[in-house]
Amino acid sequence: MKIALCQVNPTVGVLNANKELILSKYTEAVSSGAELVVFPEMVITGYPIADLLYEDGFVDENMAILDAIAGQTTVPLVIGYIHKENGHLFNSAAMCQNGKQVYRYDKLLLPTYDVFDEDRYFSAGNELGLCEIEVNGENVSLGLEICEDLWDEDYDRNIAKELADNGAECIINISASPYHELRLQERLALVQTKVKEIGIPFYYCN
């Protein structure tokens, strides 16, 4: 399976420009033969967005843009956005394919420190991110994580292992982790530890 990790730099709050960036890079990836295209956490809105969540229509517009992007998909697409349901907001990942959204995963572990005070805004998901896509006539089981889910052992939980134990053939983590010196090395070491533990491929899109 050929996977494109589109590690783009969206602009916080500029939804339509982010939409065009996503569609441009998705089209480029598909044209290059990608069979799965992956974008970062909350790429439609940018991150962190803080109190923009309370602006009239902001969350609804981001969901409408997700629908518009999904409508233009052919090969599977994993993309981060904000989902609203029954008065709750979720930091979510959508799986889109063949013109529609086919699956949604809501982030399980919400950070409560520094600029990542997500517990203030979002509700936590309650189900593992397991979904299937079809590639070259074969079903592939994907395990989805969003950023903090990778730091699961800080929460007395090992989500990557849970996904592998439940049949995931690879894990995709979408993140929006800001840069600081040596962060790449830290992330690499963390992911390598996970791979050694669970024995399946791990894809990290930041």
Q: What proportion of the residues form beta strands (DSSP E)? A: 25-35%
* Strand arrangement, major sheet: 1-2-3-4-5
What's the β-strand tally?
11
Structural class: alpha/beta
How is this structure best described in words?
The chain has 206 residues and is an alpha/beta fold. Helices cover 26% and strands 30% of the residues. It is built from 4 helices and 11 strands. It has helices at residues 15-31, 58-70, 159-165, 183-198, and strands at 3-5, 36-38, 77-85, 88-97, 100-106, 112-113, 116-117, 129-135, 138-146, 170-174, 202-205. It has a 5-stranded mixed sheet. α1 runs parallel beside α2 (58-70). The longest helix has 17 residues, at 15-31. The protein is globular, with a radius of gyration of 16 Å. The mean pLDDT is 94.
